[in-house]
């Protein structure tokens, strides 16, 4: 309903509008909530715009809904589930694990789960030392950097590969203790190949209960890989020629289905970046370079990039 006004004239002859009815003032808290919700939606939109990863997106939406509803239950003095949000990411390289981890960090910051929402990416060499006591020191340093955000450990199963006397076991012990000591300040994400991560969790059964969220990252389909390639080019203001597109599709199909170490989106990015450099070499000696020349990536550029990679 529109707010109605009357008016009166002040002693100087200036008319003044007077509202008829109640004005609902927007409080600072309400305004902050609106801004928070807007930021959350921006983050979720960024997630939605990622190619593929349908089940991954579904799980992230579920986590977000779970957190918000538990907060509502707390406000109503209802029993709440504990927010244990440590995660296991399983999938081949280049399937979006790090990208989604960054997205989750930003989301958790807006949901007031994490103070900073940043991500610290580490691997075995960043955690495991060379002598007794060195590992605990290195691991604690990385944990300290990650407080208020996410500690993302790639190829986490490598921490358990050396047996009982390996210093990797010490790193695991420090990490497990930190999950309790900093349960409201740190989220741990362990990532790696699916089979290796499954074996790792069996070797360390105590970890299973500490990581309630397991997310599988499937390999991209050929169609999705082409979409990723075209998005990367579009963001950089390039296009693929028709024969270049066919050649790239053939390369990806061959690599995707015949090579167990295919890098998924990482391989696509390497190809695209190398193709752009190949185009630059091709054009630099040309006279009268047109706008179309600068934009188009050709069959020759794709072939040269693939040969070098």
Automatic annotation (TrEMBL):
Gene3D superfamilies: 1.10.8.60, P-loop containing nucleotide triphosphate hydrolases. Residues 83-221 form the AAA+ ATPase domain. Keywords: ATP-binding, Nucleotide-binding. The keyword Disulfide bond does not apply. CDD domains: AAA (cd00009). SMART domains: AAA. GO terms for molecular function: ATP binding; ATP hydrolysis activity. It holds the Pfam family AAA. InterPro entries: AAA+_ATPase (IPR003593), AAA_lid_6 (IPR041627), ATPase_AAA_core (IPR003959), CbxX/CfxQ (IPR000641), CbxX/CfxQ_RuBisCO_ESX (IPR050773), P-loop_NTPase (IPR027417). Belongs to the CbxX/CfxQ family. This is Stage V sporulation protein K. It comes from Desulfonispora thiosulfatigenes DSM 11270.
